[in-house]
Amino acid sequence: MMQLFASSKNRGMKELLILTRSFMCSVSVCSLVGCKIWLGNEGEVSSLPLPTVSADELGVGFVVPNSPSATKSPFSVYLKAKKIPGRTVGGLQIRALQLIEIKEDASVVKDAVPFVSGKPKHQVERWGIDSKSGSEEPLPQGVWIAGETQWGRGDTVNETNGFDVKNCTAIANQLAKLGSAAYDKEIPHETHALGPAFTALKFVGPGTTDRTAIGIHVDNNWKTDPGSSGCVTTLPGENDKFSNLKKVHTWLANLGNKKFPCEGKYIPLIVDWGLPSSGSGRSWTGSSTSLSLAVSPSDLDLLALIPADATLPKVSLTEIMNGLDSEK
């Protein structure tokens, strides 16, 4: 092959052969490591593998005994984001978004999906107060609540009745009404990053954060520009790009269908990157009690601190687009 390159007098043929050789090498290397070759925009080749993450790595079935001293939680179910130790791809930390059910004596991870957050060169986790707009880092550690979901079809599913777990039928109604057609149209944006649905997240503590336009959506352009500006971006599935996002929607729809008890007012998300819990802005006085995060509080203690008057985050296409642009 090298002799063929040297003897060719046709520059175009040389370049074609070089490209062919390069592509063949890429295929052979990827066949060894089990990755895929993606054809991106304008024929760009991306060899970032689509990782397989086991249920054990995601923590499904994991049981955490509830401490007798822990504050009784006003919630019966919540979401939690954690890192999966030792799992990275293309410079991105692979993470787990868990659905956790609180029972009398223990909390149980009922289900989970893999996701990434932030851009490959910006995988630095911080507390909310230290995390700056435009950093393209993962969503900051702390407590969040989930709000409205905007669909590419133009429907804001809970525009009129509000989305909380006392009236949590919004996504269930949307999926019942549209079925798989709910995923047929993406939210329009030049990056094609959002996919068919975006669930807004609001940071509620400790302290505040400069981060905006944070939400849950699929990593819709994984093949050409993997990662996010800070959102929880579910990994595309092997055969169905939206399979992990659909699973998250199913969790929320099940809340609407009362398959889980709907006792609390919000759907909380605890983001736990394992950061140290000391320093200014990392202690929090909640609606009924106060807690220094230096004492490594349990999830139940953190959930008890969500302010009773916390406002659910609103979302519109305009807000999403403006927020995405400000995070660049």
Largest sheet, order of strands side by side?
A: 4-5-6-10-9-8-7-11
Kindly state the mean pLDDT as a whole number? Answer: 73
Q: Could you tell me the number of beta strands? A: 13
Uncertain spans: 1-45, 157-168, 256-264, 286-291
The percent range for strand residues is 15-25%
Number of domains: 2
**Rounded Rg:** 22 Å
Count of discrete alpha- or pi-helical segments spanning 4 or more residues: 7
- Output the structural class: alpha+beta
Using the alpha-carbon principal axes, give the shape.
globular
Tell me about the biggest sheet? 8 strands, mixed, barrel
Measured between the Cα atoms of the first and last residue, the distance is: 44 Å
Order of helices and strands: HHEEHEEEEEHEEEHEEEHH
Residues in helices, as a percent range: 10-25%
How would you describe this structure in keywords?
2 domains, 328 residues, two-stranded antiparallel ribbon, 22% helix, disordered N terminus, eight-stranded mixed beta barrel, alpha+beta, 13 strands
